[in-house]
Amino acid sequence: MDIEDNTRPYEAGIVTDFSKKKAYGSYLALDELLGAQHPVSVPEHHDEMLFIIQHQTSELWLKLMLHELRSARELLAHDDLGTALKRIARVKHIQDTLTHQWSVLATLTPTEYSEFRSFLGNASGFQSHQYRAVEFILGNKNVKALSVYENDPAAKAVLQGLLDEPTLYDEFLRYLARRGYPVPASVLERDVSRAYVFTPELVPVFTDIYESTDENWRVYEACEELVDLEDNFQFWRFRHLRTVSRTIGMKTGTGGSSGVDFLQRALSLTFFPELFAVRSEIGA
Question: Residue 183 in contact with residue 175, Cβ under 8 Å?
Fold first, then answer.
C-alpha cells in the first residue's frame, strides 16, 4: 500500500482487457438489472427508488427460494434426504435475509409513502406470483389465486403446474412411507391440488419418531428442518404485517385487500400442521 496517497496498487495479474473475455457486468446482465428501476411518481419522489428495489430484490430471492424448494422436492422423490436438507438449509438463510430486509423498507415513513403511493395504481405485492408459488409448493394452495393472473399467462402456468404437483411435504411423507413408516393411505392418495389439511392419524407417526430419536435421527432432523422452514415463513409474514401497519395503518391495500387485517389472517395458515401438533403429545 502506498501510504503517501492512500491507494492500493493494482497487481500485475489483474485482468483489465475484456474485449474478448466475459466480464462481471456482462455475466450478471447488470445493464439490464440496474436499468430495471423505473419510478412512476411525478415529480419523481426520492423514496420510490427504495420501494422498487426492496420489492425487486425480494423477487430475486423468491426466485432462488423456489429453485431450491423444487430441487428439494425432487430429491425427496428420489430418496436423497441428505441433499434435500442441504437445499432446505439454504432456503432458511434466504428467509432470514428476506425477513431482515423489511427493516430497510420500515425506514419509509407514512408521510413519505403517501407522497407517491397513489402512483402505484393497483400494483401490489399481493400479485407476486413467485410468492404465491412458494406458498403452493409448501402446501398453502388456493385455486382462486389463479384468477389474479388471467392477464399473465406465464405466471398462471407456473401456478397451475404447482397446483397439480405434490408439495414438499407430500414428497416428505411419501419418503417416510417408502421407509416403512405407517403414513395413512388417505395422506398418500390425497388430492394434491388442494391445500394440505391436518390429518390426526399422522400425529402418532411423528410421535414415535420424536420419542425414539436414536432410531429415527435422520427423519427426526428433517422434521425439525421443516419446522424451521415454517417458523421462518411466519416470521416473514409477521414482519410484513408490522411494516405495513407502521406505514399505512389500517388503510386498504393497493391491490384491493383489507390490508393489515388480510395479512393478520394469513398468520393462521400452516404448512406442516402435524409437526406442530406432535409437540402436545410428546411426554404426555
Answer: no
Q: How far apart are CA 242 and CA 196, in angstroms?
A: 27
The count of other CB atoms within 10 Å of the CB of residue 236 is 19
pTM of structure:
0.93
- Determine contact, residues 206/227, Cβ cutoff 8 Å: no
C-alpha cell at 264: 393478520
- CA–chain centroid gap for 148, Å, is 19
Residue corresponding to grid cell 404437483? 165
Summarised one tens digit per residue, pLDDT across range 39-90 is 999 999 999 999 999 999 999 999 999 999 999 999 999 999 999 999 999 9
User: DSSP 3-state assignment of 157?
Assistant: helix
Per DSSP, what are the bridge partners of residue 2?
Answer: 7
For residue 114, the tally of other CB atoms under 10 A from its CB is: 12
First to last CA, the chain: 66
- How many angstroms separate the CA atoms of 52 and 281, rounded? 46
Q: What is the pLDDT of residues 220-238, one digit of tens each?
A: 999 999 999 999 999 999 8
The angle formed by the CA atoms of residues 210, 214 and 217, to the nearest 5 degrees, is 70
Cis status of the peptide bond prior to 39, with omega within 30 of 0:
no
Say how far apart CA 245 and CA 117 lie, in whole Å.
15
**C-alpha R_g of the chain:** 23
Going by C-alpha positions, the residue among 67, 70, 39 that lies closest to residue 55 is 39
Query: What backbone phi and psi angles, to 5 degrees, belong to 241?
Result: -55, -45
